[in-house]
Amino acid sequence: MPPIWTTPRTWATGELVTAAQLNQHLRDNLDWLKSPAWTQHIGTGSGNYALAPVVNTWTLLHTDFDRSLTTLGGRMLIHAALMVNTTATGTSAFSLEIDGVLQSNTDGLAAIFGAGNAYLSFVYPVVLSAGPHTIRLMARLTTSGTVTVYNHPSSSGQRLTPLFWIGEIA
Questions:
Q1: Strand 147-149, strand 49-51: pairing
Q2: What is the pLDDT of residues 149-164, one digit of tens each?
Q3: How far from each other are the two terminal CA atoms of the chain, in whole angstroms?
Q4: Domain range 38-168, its CATH number among 3.40.640.10, 2.60.120.1340, 2.30.30.110, 3.30.470.20
Q5: Which of 29, 111, 136, 166 has its CA 20 to 30 A from that of 2?
Q6: Which residues on adjacent β-strands are paired with residue 148?
């Protein structure tokens, strides 16, 4: 069970404080502050992710980018960093879906215009209610083609592995 925040008590001068009160107002609230929700995917380098989505349809980029977590309620940061290749000559857009709701218009939160390689990185701030949530990294092409997310170390020693993390910050 995740820690629960209790509004701190205002103590009166001379009041006798019990162990139960200290546990509830100090220990449990400190546990809450030190237990933010967090999930991540860091590429393993075991092979690229390839996707050929239906044109003009938002599609889950890969099951590794389908993350679930239970939040305590409040501000969240979501970060994606990917080295991507697309063969589509139109727009390759990338966005987030939170609990089934797309978080952008058709242009996405980040996009590649035309075929080629690109490094995409974005941070998305959002406020979520307390409870379970599903966050997915989505792709959409305006012309037919494929999207490949690199997931391997390069010959030059650079890591071409994707990073996708979600963290509660307050």
A1: antiparallel
A2: 988 766 555 557 888 9
A3: 18
A4: 2.60.120.1340
A5: 136
A6: 50, 85
